[in-house]
Amino acid sequence: MANPPLSILIIGAHPDDADIKAGGTAAHWCAGGHKVRLVSLTDGRAGHHAMPGPALVKRRRAEATAAAAVIGATYDILAHHDGELDDRLENRREVIRLIRSARPDLIITHRSNDYHPDHRFTGLLVQDASYLLTVPSICPEVPHLAACPVILHFSDAFTRPCRFEPDVVVDIDDVFDRVVDMLHRHESQFYEWLPYNAGHPEQVPQGDVARRAWLAGRIRERIEPLADRYRDAVVQTYGEDRGAKVRLIEAFEVSEYGAPLDAAARARLFPFLPHDARADSTVVTRKWADEPAGVDRP
């Protein structure tokens, strides 16, 4: 009997975070008939130099919906103001309800060390929700989960207090155009706000075709170094021949607050990875999984 479709929940802080960090892997899941739900915890209202507030919120919702449609995913935008997310109790409860309602097999989100406070608090909220997902008396209006799902973190370049270490790498060479198509829908970000914020708005060309080509080059420059940075992991995953040729990847780190990513879980959650890589993968567990029998876990 075939395995049921996976439920994948990708939680970013802003509209476009999930796309740019995991859009290629999401495209692989969608192509395999799995359910991918992209989420932004904030409404993105501060992400523009000339169109802040409700008008921008409406525009970014439409952009996110169009981006998700490229691969057959869905996109949810929560109502927290951009730049004002924090870890107050009501926000944790909202994340618990969000995750429970999705009943995901896998969650991907930010690490809790990052330059942007919204990114940090998104990672922290998912972390703080992880164990409580299984506690019936917490948010009892939404049925609790029998077990916490696997949680992965997006890649980043921050080194303090600890650097990102990839546990999963995914070749996105053959879906890169789809990633660009997704990001191309976020017009307010990639053709307006981000160039303005970086100080080079004049570099954005005119015309849809020229802009998309320009964006593809910018995105390729941004993610291409990852494959060489984590080449050992790429080769381990795809073998010597293919692993040496892969140019574009997405990389993820296992959170110790989620369920273990053992060989069986990896094979189930990443059916598009080579069989040998899935079968021979290293078991990654929560820290408390190594505690002696009889030690109570809070």
What keyword list fits this structure?
11 helices, 298 residues, single chain, 7 strands, seven-stranded mixed β-sheet, 44% helix, Rossmann fold
Distance between the termini: 38 Å
Cα radius of gyration in angstroms = 19 Å
The secondary-structure element order is EHEHEHEHEEHHHHHEHH
Tell me the overall shape: globular
- Give the integer mean of the pLDDT values: 93
Percentage beta strand: 5-15%
CATH superfamily of the domain at 7-171 and 252-286: LmbE-like
Number of strands: 7
CATH class of the domain at 7-171 and 252-286: Alpha Beta
Helix content: 40-55%
CATH-defined architecture of the domain at 7-171 and 252-286: 3-Layer(aba) Sandwich
Poorly predicted parts: 278-298
Trace the largest sheet across and list its strands: 3-2-1-4-5-7-6
Largest sheet: 7 strands, mixed
How are the elements arranged and paired?
Elements (H helix, E strand, L loop, with lengths): L6 E6 L4 H15 L3 E8 L11 H18 L2 E7 L8 H14 L3 E4 L7 H14 L19 E5 L13 E4 L4 H10 L1 H12 L9 H22 L1 H8 L1 H6 L3 E6 L8 H7 L5 H5 L19
Parallel strand pairs: 1-2, 1-4, 2-3, 4-5
Antiparallel strand pairs: 5-7, 6-7
Helix pairs in contact: 1-5, 2-5, 3-4, 5-7
How would you concisely characterize the structure shown here?
The chain is of the alpha/beta class and about 300 residues long.
Structure description:
This protein is an alpha/beta fold and 298 residues long. The chain has a domain at 7-171 and 252-286: Rossmann fold (3-Layer(aba) Sandwich), CATH 3.40.50. 44% of the residues lie in helices and 13% in strands. The protein has helices spanning 17-31, 54-71, 89-102, 117-130, 176-185, 187-198, 208-229, 231-238, 240-245, 263-269, 275-279, and strands at 7-12, 35-42, 74-80, 106-109, 150-154, 168-171, 249-254. It has a 7-stranded mixed sheet, with helices on both faces. The radius of gyration is 19 Å and the shape is globular. It starts with 6 loop residues before the first strand and ends in a 19-residue tail after the last helix.
